[in-house]
Write a structure and sequence with these properties.
The complex is a heterodimer of chains A (295) and B (435).
Chain A: H1 5-38, H2 56-61, H3 65-96, H4 103-111, H5 118-129, H6 134-141, H7 158-183, H8 187-195, H9 200-211, H10 213-228, H11 232-237, H12 249-259, H13 263-290
Chain B: H1 2-17, E1 29-30, E2 38-45, H2 53-62, E3 66-72, H3 78-87, E4 94-97, H4 99-107, H5 127-133, E5 134-135, E6 138-139, E7 141-145, E8 153-156, H6 157-162, H7 171-183, E9 187-189, H8 197-200, H9 203-212, H10 220-225, H11 231-247, H12 260-268, E10 272-276, H13 285-288, E11 297-300, E12 311-315, E13 319-323, H14 330-341, H15 343-352, H16 371-375, E14 382-386, H17 394-408, H18 413-427
Parallel strand pairs in B: 2-3, 2-4, 9-10, 12-14
Antiparallel strand pairs in B: 1-2, 4-13, 5-6, 7-13, 8-10, 8-11
Helix pairs in contact in B: 9-11, 11-17, 11-18, 17-18
Classes of the chains: A mainly alpha (295), B alpha/beta (435).
């Protein structure tokens, strides 16, 4: 049977796609399905024996204070990071959208931290925020000893330090997305707004923000998923301490699986967290898309 | 299948955490025609400062057909990463193992039976050690070093001389020395508590063991596993002791964020007067290279509790050498094992790092600074218990680490004891018991 040219093209295309599909199914969906399977067991991750415990794991995770604490910490980190991050990213974008001298250099410098591994970022900031680190030493040298803090060992303070580092790391990345949105606003819209007397805060609120909502949608989505999955920063800087104040859900999953040898339970936490992130991002997408305007 | 499934789930969990896998090559062996078979072995440990290199190099020189590729796994994550490797059928051929995982791995069939290896002959002179490491009558590992039954507290002689202090011999004197130092603006103690083992594996463990052994018929972990005591029954005193040191301001505030390496440097720089640590400290570069004008190393025996006129300590093994049951090159792996534990080689290894052993037949010379401290072990009021019929789970050990770290930053002893009791119950069923 002779194949048509179209069929040949399709088969050729399929051949190119198959390796990617196989890899994707093997390393994304198969583990996901196995996680689902194990979440209903008490498997310790080690022995071949395990029992099906149905929904016991899911029931336990809603009653364990360590898990709820990890969720609280993660939500705090995400909310604080997104609020502070949006202000910083948008602020930088609004400044650098203007044709200033050294504009490109600043954009590059600000973007650089986002391409560095969070582990490296964490290790670098560790030397700054340790009690005898660069920040405290500098404060002492300039006569501001009263501001010396145990930045990474103060339960009231440490999570905010992590938020600050996260905001710094992703400031350039978000700024580029907002910058793209700002540059997409037609010049005549801005000129018309200026002629109508819309300047400053009013112009930002009534003209700029509505017109860059597509960029906000994308940026929010990336920020929410990224912040909720935070792992490397607390892992390197604090190990979840002090007093579990920086113990995030991903760290809890890791500890439950690899330290407590409760793979089944860890799978149930992972799955619940996956559903939580999916729900939050769906809500976010619906809300921010509604705010987008046509022009 | 189980290995694949384990790997898949581990991948799913860890990918969510953003961690990266640990790539490595499988052990290779090839036999070119007409040549002696070349074998490559993987050897894994947490020895990040090249402690094992001289032994490995000497072995390869003597066995040119065996190449040993060393893998150093981060000590803080060693148990977890090793477990992942074993689960995915990617265990190193020969590796060091902490005691708390030894019996479990042996029971699960992950370790090669080494009962009849020539290197085990020395155990005939050490029946208590032999018994501690036998699982169902078989030997799966060799205790390279015992870990000091009680780790010393190092002090800076220059600082002590300056304030007319002498090494304390009991808890009261220890607190008095600390108070004097504090009053003179000197930080009495420093730990590298970001690496939690520096807290739990030094002063705390010495206090804990001496306090808890007589309360538990000299087997703390067995008593815990059997439910004869709760963690709070045996951990209360040592935690309270550490808590008091924190409350009185005797532990440097820097401790909570210093790593182990940084704490060594901190002490060598003369920023703190006392440093509870392992017996290897005198050989470390920052100590050896410290400015003699401001630093001179001394060591004293920590102020452990005395019960009915006796002091107790426990030795369970620090670095246990084992072979994976899945090794593709068992003969080469056994050759490395036997070379490593050969008494002369072991003596060189231990002395070069100032490590402690309770094995008779290995005459290890102690560095002069630790001589007095070592003499304390031979006193008649001191009893060293070898091994245990059980072991705490890594998960609970981590909780003890956390408790100490929390106390260091202001948590109360009561809160931590309550938490430890709760956490213990969650993983108690995982404790392996040898009856």
């Amino acid at each position: 049977m002779k194949m048509t040219r179209r069929t040949q093209d399709r088969l050729g295309a399929l051949l190119f796609v198959v390796p990617a599909i196989v890899l994707f199914l093997s390393f994304k969906y198969y583990p996901l399905l196995m996680t689902l399977y194990y979440s209903f067991t008490d498997w310790d991750g080690f022995s071949g024996d395990y029992r099906f415990v149905l929904f016991d794991n899911f029931a336990n995770l809603f009653t364990e204070s360590k898990i709820s604490g990890a969720f609280r910490n993660t939500i705090y980190f995400a909310v604080a990071s997104i609020i502070a991050g949006t202000v910083v990213q948008l602020g930088l974008a609004l400044i650098l959208v203007n044709r200033l001298k050294g504009n490109r250099l600043f954009r590059t410098l600000l973007y650089t931290p986002s391409v560095i591994s969070s582990l490296i970022i964490g290790l670098t900031w560790l030397s700054f925020f340790q009690y005898n680190g660069i920040i405290n030493q500098t404060l002492e040298r300039i006569g501001l000893s009263s501001l010396v803090r145990n930045w990474l060992a103060d339960a009231e303070l440490t999570m905010n330090v992590l938020v600050g580092i996260n905001v710094w790391q992703w400031a350039g990345y978000g700024m580029i997305i907002y910058l793209t949105g700002l540059l997409g606003i037609p010049t005549e819209v801005n000129e018309a707004a200026a002629l109508d007397g819309a300047v400053g805060w009013r112009r930002l609120r009534s003209i700029t923000l509505p017109l860059i909502m597509p960029a906000v949608t994308v940026n929010m989505f990336i920020s929410i998923t990224g912040a909720l999955r935070v792992f490397e920063l607390p892992f390197v800087l604090t190990g979840g301490g002090p007093m579990n104040s920086t113990n995030t859900v991903t760290m809890q999953i890791y500890n439950t699986a690899f330290l407590s040898n409760q793979f089944g339970y860890a799978s149930s936490i992972g799955l619940t967290f996956f559903l939580f992130i999916a729900a939050i991002t769906l809500i976010q997408l619906r809300v921010t898309r509604r705010l987008e305007v046509e022009y | 299948m189980a290995g694949w499934m384990s790997l898949a789930v581990a991948t799913a969990l860890v990918s969510g955490c953003g961690a990266e896998g640990n790539g490595n090559k499988a052990a290779e062996s090839s036999a070119p025609a007409g040549e002696e078979q070349q074998v490559t072995l993987k050897y894994a440990s947490w020895m990040s400062k090249g402690e094992d290199k001289p032994t490995i190099a000497a072995f390869m020189e003597q066995n040119p057909n065996i190449k040993v590729v060393e893998e150093v796994i981060d000590g803080n994550q060693y148990s977890q990463l090793l477990q992942t490797r074993i689960l995915s059928d990617d265990a190193p051929d020969v590796f060091l193992l902490p005691f708390d995982q030894y019996t479990k791995y042996a029971n699960e069939g992950h370790l090669l039976d080494l009962t009849d290896e020539p290197g085990m002959a020395i155990l005939a002179d050490n029946p208590s050690v032999d018994e501690a490491f036998k699982v169902d009558g078989k030997r799966y590992g060799f205790m390279i070093n015992s870990g000091a039954p009680v780790n010393p507290i190092y002090y800076n002689k220059k600082i002590f001389e300056k304030y007319g202090l002498t090494p304390p011999t009991n808890a009261e004197e220890f607190l008095a020395v600390s108070e004097t130092l504090k009053q003179n603006g000197v930080e009495p103690l420093v730990f590298g508590a970001k690496d939690a083992w520096t807290l739990s594996g030094t002063l705390y463990s010495a206090m804990f063991r001496s306090y808890a052994l007589p309360k538990t018929n000299k087997d703390i972990y067995y008593a815990l596993a059997k439910g004869e005591v709760k963690p709070s029954d045996v951990i209360d005193y040592p935690l309270q002791f550490i808590g008091d040191l924190v409350a009185k301001g005797y532990i440097s505030e820097a401790s909570s964020t210093l790593t182990y390496d940084q704490s060594v440097q901190y002490f060598a720089d003369g920023k703190a007067a006392m440093f509870p640590q392992g017996t290897w400290v005198p050989t470390l570069d920052p100590i050896v290279g410290a400015d003699p004008a401001g630093f001179e190393l001394g060591a004293f025996f920590p102020p452990i509790p005395v019960v009915d006129g006796k002091k107790y300590a426990l030795s369970s093994g620090d670095r246990i050498l084992v072979i994976s049951s899945k090794t593709k090159n068992p003969e080469a792996a056994k050759a490395l094992f036997n070379f490593f534990v050969q008494p002369d080689n072991l003596k060189t290894y231990l002395e070069s790092q100032s490590l402690f052993t309770v094995m008779k037949g290995i005459d290890v010379q102690t560095v002069p600074v630790l001589q007095e401290y070592v003499n304390s072990f031979s006193s008649s009021d001191f009893e060293v218990v070898i091994g245990s019929k059980s072991a705490l789970t890594p998960a609970f050990n981590k909780e003890v680490d956390l408790a100490l770290q929390n106390i260091l930053v202001g948590s109360t002893v009561e809160t931590e004891l309550k938490r430890l009791n709760e956490e213990f119950e969650k993983t108690k069923s995982q404790m392996v018991i040898k009856e």
